[in-house]
Amino acid sequence: MDQTDHPAGGLTSRPFFGPQGSGGPGDKGTGLASWIFSTDHKRIGLLYLGVIGLMFTTALVLGLILRLKLMTPGSTLLTPQQYNAMFTLHGVIMVFMVVIPSIPASFGNIFLPLHIGANDVSFPRLNNFSWWLYVTGMVLAITSIFTGAGAPDTGWTFYVPFSERTTTNVSLAVIAVFILGFSSILTGLNFITTVHRLRTPGMTWRKLSLFVWSLYATGWIQVLATPILGITALLIFAERVLHLGLFDPGRGGDPLLYQHLFWIYSHPAVYIMILPAMGVISEIIPVFARKPIFGYNMIAFSSLAIAFAGSLVWAHHMFTSGMSDTAVLIFSFLTFVVAIPSAIKVFNWLSTLYKGSISLDPPLLYALGFIFMFSIGGLTGLVLGAAGTDIHVHDTYFVVAHFHYVIFGGTGLGMFAAMHYWFPKVFGRMYDHGRAAWAFWLVLLGMNVLYFPMFIMGLQGMPRRYYDYLPQYGSMQMVSTWGSWLLAVGLALMFWNLYRGCRYGPIATRNPWGGATLEWTLPTPLPHEAFEGDPKAPEPYDFKGINPDG
Amino acid sequence: MAEHAAPNAPASAHPKDYHAAKMGMWLFLFTEILLFGGLFLLYASYRHRFPEAFHAGGQTLDVFLGGLNTVVLITSSLSVAMSITALRRGELVRCLWLLGFTIACAGGFMVNKTIEWLAKFHHGLIPGSEHMLALPQGQGVFYGLYYAMTGLHGVHVIIGGSVLAWVMLLIRQGKVTAQDYVVLENAGLYWHIVDLVWIYLFPLFYLIS
């Protein structure tokens, strides 16, 4: 296909956002119903993006308030109960409603079918249904804040026995989590089937883009791990309502088993969070280095290896919970094993950059930010995975810093990288590159000022989730809160810049970055029905003859 | 490889892909197995910890009622499988009768189950009650698991029966036909998993003593 196609010029009134209605068959117009009942994967992806953005902002504000409270010791701003409820909601919303669906449900929905040359996913109606499940779960979770005897105060982990006994509205919250999990399962199921069934002729497994590979691996984790979360949430509900006593030590139950069940899902879930971001990075790095990806096979394989090995490490969250030493040793060893495929990816990205013709556009900046933050987060993860050091830093700020580096610095920056990479294709306009770079540096600086002091405080023994602290942590807590403001300013600038680009930016060309995957052969913004007939399967990382046209 | 739409097909028409529908269903069945898997894990762990209590608990369950329910479910699995063959041969009336019989079996199972549970309640084995709290430790867990697992299974029987009723409607409306029968086949697969879970629950609770 002609890669240097001229941009569709002369269109002064582009749609505000989203794939444009072609007016042809299948075009359902632009009304609200045409969106919320749409079975079009692009529209569903944008619906997810919108709601995820809303939830991200909500939980971000909660996080900022928490940091503001922690700026000074003593009882300020929030009561202890409000504080407990707020960090619970920050966690529940961020984990189940933002980070888990983030990249797969939004950009995955839009670009997975296009990358394999398909016009939609295998089950478009199921896709729409999963969005509705997501919204239902979201509404229930929000309802749980304002109804019953107060917002849940257990932390996002819902550990027993407290979650069985607290009078706050945990029952509704776990039902919300169950429904959100169901939504996630259906997305994963849809993606796996789509990759198996709808590849264009000639699109062999080794011609799949690495983004598709990562979503495929993620899909398997979603399908195989999420049901355990489902049953765990249902059991909490049953314990609270029916008093079965399965986790109640007073009746022979064992709270440790709850922790096992919870982490059997929730550890693989961190790979649901990070794998799609790794896929995005694998797309962006070669495009902006103008070089084929280094070690395609190993990156694809490492996605599957992470999905597999990541399912076997859950109990490293429980080293201090009272497991046998044998179990601790085995899970510690397996945790080190899972670091290998992650490192393989990082080394391959760096090798791709080596001697590349690098253009430091915003998507690459965010991708490099990902590598930097993920490396810090990943290496400190090994400190936690080693049984000896974990005893010292378990349940301290060190853990909080570690997972925010991985999840916010990793998945978050990966999501922002994806937003800046695919923005012109999705919205049909281009944002301001200079402002995007400024926003990036502010976000990166803010994150580090916010979270790095937490490593130090953790090593010094500051426990996580505490309402108050000793005066010796005062200065670090203060710096950390300043960091949260820097981060907030950076994020505000980033979103404002994207919004400006969306409304007033210059019309985007067909292939502004010079990507070789199939979506860049399509008009900008995306038409309702992407491909007429089966497209020819490209080499996804062969940039010969492909140049940026913007 | 994929069966693609002909290039000139209407833009909105998504071609029906039989293999995709089956694959999606099998993936969903995996998730069902894993949903119960969490409970089986708890069962294994607690049985290991309280072998005597599980033995004593198992003796109080009614093997006859449990066995009867096993026969009912296996028979219904047969009838749902036969209904698929009937539909593929175009024998609509027979297919509908067989599905009706399957749903009747589901109803029979639930009636049976209710009788069983009510008998347990009658003996004071109500979750959270004083009587349950007074039981030796492991037995409380045994009955807790019994209610959780057979209860979740019962919910699946109701869902499965409802899905089959819905498919009956689709067949009568001509939306599921001898040529396009994958919806019935998938509903049948779901019914088989409901059956299969019971096949494990029955010995684990009723026959372990």
Quick overview:
Chain A has 16 helices and no strands. With 550 residues, chain A is mainly α. Chain A has one domain (43-521): Up-down Bundle (Cytochrome C Oxidase, Chain A), CATH 1.20.210.10.
Give a structural overview:
The complex is a heterodimer of chains A (550) and B (209). By secondary structure, chain A is mainly alpha-helical. Helices cover 65% and strands 0% of the residues of chain A. Chain A has one domain (43-521): Cytochrome C Oxidase, Chain A (Up-down Bundle), CATH 1.20.210.10. Chain B has helices spanning 18-49, 51-60, 63-88, 92-122, 130-134, 137-172, 182-206. Chain B has one domain (18-206): Cytochrome c oxidase, subunit III, four-helix bundle (Four Helix Bundle (Hemerythrin (Met), subunit A)). The radius of gyration of chain B is 21 Å and the shape is elongated. Chain B has 7 helices and no strands. In chain B, helix 1 runs antiparallel to helix 6 (137-172), helix 1 (18-49) packs parallel to helix 7 and helix 3 (63-88) runs antiparallel to helix 7.
CATH class of chain B: Mainly Alpha
CATH architecture heading of chain A: Up-down Bundle
Helix count of chain B, per DSSP?
Answer: 7
The structural class of chain A is: mainly alpha
Could you estimate the helical fraction of the residues of chain A in percent?
A: 55-70%
Domain tally of chain A? 1
CATH fold-level name of chain A = Cytochrome C Oxidase, Chain A
Overall 3D shape of chain B: elongated
Any idea what the CATH superfamily of chain B is called?
Cytochrome c oxidase, subunit III, four-helix bundle
**Secondary-structure element string of chain B:** HHHHHHH
Biggest beta sheet summary of chain A? none
> What is the average of the pLDDT values of chain B?
90
- The CATH architecture classification of chain B is Up-down Bundle
**What is the count of distinct domains of chain B?**
1
Strand content of chain B: under 5%
Core attributes:
heterodimer; A: 550 residues; mainly alpha; Cytochrome C Oxidase, Chain A; 0% strand; globular; disordered N terminus; B: 209 residues; Four Helix Bundle (Hemerythrin (Met), subunit A); 7 helices; 79% helix; elongated
